[in-house]
């Protein structure tokens, strides 16, 4: 996969040289290139922003440097079709694990890191001729710029590429892989500062351990992210799953999981 990132703070993306993503770059699994938007300016001050039409606080990123930068990225694209341009924005669709899996199937991703009050909207309209443009949000909060979001998204997508994570099985059992949060994990010693581990993990009974972990997924999800359980299709759940969920106050109504009202 090729990934291009355009930013006025290219040094912000230096963290992508570390850990598994950095190793993936070294091994040739990920062709990741960072571009300085200011190198596409034409004035002596390398200006990338100006005051907004209509007034208001803050500055808006100028369209021409972005057009030149994105045209350069598009011209160098190895993709057969249009590459995907992701624009981090609190006004975008929320980034999810499902979206990460979808993006991992693409051959070329580009990221446009906005700053200030954002990028002139005409840039996104123009870029739609060259890219599949997708404004994407990390969540319902505002950051100073898109770089933090890009770090998170590149890591979430990059680790799904074949060969990046050493043990592919670990991708199957983690949070959100099946719509639930991950179960708690433990390591040696079995007794630490007076705290033991669940006895079932010492039983050697793999079926019991698997069901324990599944039950813990339901318990943790119900406690921390009940929104993930509401509406879960009952057809994907076993009898043991339904029994565990019933203890947490969930029943099946019209084929979907529903929280029982508290009495």
TrEMBL record:
Per UniProt, residues of the tRNA methyltransferase TRMD/TRM10-type domain are: 1-230
Q: Where in the cell is it found?
A: Cytoplasm
Q: Give the Gene3D superfamilies listed for this entry.
A: 3.40.1280.10, tRNA(m1g37)methyltransferase, domain 2
What is the superkingdom listed in this entry's lineage?
A: Bacteria
Q: What is its EC class? A: transferase
* UniProt KW tRNA processing keyword: yes
> Per UniProt, where does S-adenosyl-L-methionine bind?
114, 138-143
Q: Which GO terms describe its molecular function?
A: tRNA (guanine(37)-N1)-methyltransferase activity
Instruction: Supply the EC number(s).
Output: 2.1.1.228
Query: Which CDD domains does the record cross-reference, listed alphabetically?
Result: TrmD-like
Which terms are listed as keywords in the entry?
Answer: Cytoplasm, Methyltransferase, S-adenosyl-L-methionine, Transferase, tRNA processing
Q: Catalyzes what?
A: guanosine(37) in tRNA + S-adenosyl-L-methionine = N(1)-methylguanosine(37) in tRNA + S-adenosyl-L-homocysteine + H(+)
Q: Which Pfam families match?
A: tRNA_m1G_MT
Recorded hits in InterPro entries, A to Z, give: Alpha/beta_knot_MTases, tRNA_m1G_MeTrfase_C_sf, tRNA_m1G_MeTrfase_TrmD, tRNA_m1G_MTases_N, tRNA_MeTrfase_TRMD/TRM10
Give the GO terms filed under biological process for this record: methylation
- Which family is annotated? Belongs to the RNA methyltransferase TrmD family.
**Complexes and interactors:** Homodimer.
What role does this protein play?
A: Specifically methylates guanosine-37 in various tRNAs.
Name it.
Answer: tRNA (guanine-N(1)-)-methyltransferase
Q: Which organism is it from?
A: Arthrobacter flavus
């Amino acid at each position: 996969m090729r990934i291009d990132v355009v930013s006025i703070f290219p040094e912000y993306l230096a963290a992508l040289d570390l850990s598994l993503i950095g190793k993936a770059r070294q091994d040739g699994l990920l062709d990741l290139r960072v571009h300085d938007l200011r190198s596409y300016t034409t004035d002596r001050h390398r200006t990338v922003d100006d005051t907004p039409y209509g007034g208001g606080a803050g500055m808006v990123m100028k369209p021409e440097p972005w057009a030149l930068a994105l045209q350069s990225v598009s011209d160098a694209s190895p993709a057969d079709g249009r590459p995907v341009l992701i624009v981090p924005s609190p006004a975008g669709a929320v980034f999810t694990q499902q979206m990460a899996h979808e993006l991992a199937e693409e051959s070329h991703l580009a990221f446009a890191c906005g700053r200030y009050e954002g990028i002139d909207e005409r840039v996104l309209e123009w870029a739609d001729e060259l890219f599949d443009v997708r404004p994407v949000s990390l969540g319902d909060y505002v950051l100073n710029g898109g770089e933090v979001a890009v770090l998170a998204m590149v890591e979430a997508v990059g680790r799904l590429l074949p060969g990046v994570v050493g043990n592919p099985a670990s991708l199957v059992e983690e949070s959100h892989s099946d719509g639930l949060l991950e179960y708690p994990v433990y390591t040696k010693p079995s007794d630490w500062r007076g705290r033991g581990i669940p006895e079932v993990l010492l039983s050697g009974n793999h079926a019991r351990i698997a069901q324990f972990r599944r039950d813990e997924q339901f318990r943790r999800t119900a406690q921390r992210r009940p929104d993930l359980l509401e509406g879960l299709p009952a057809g994907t759940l076993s009898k043991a799953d339904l029994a565990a969920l019933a203890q947490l106050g969930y029943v099946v109504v019209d084929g979907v999981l529903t929280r029982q009202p508290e009495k």
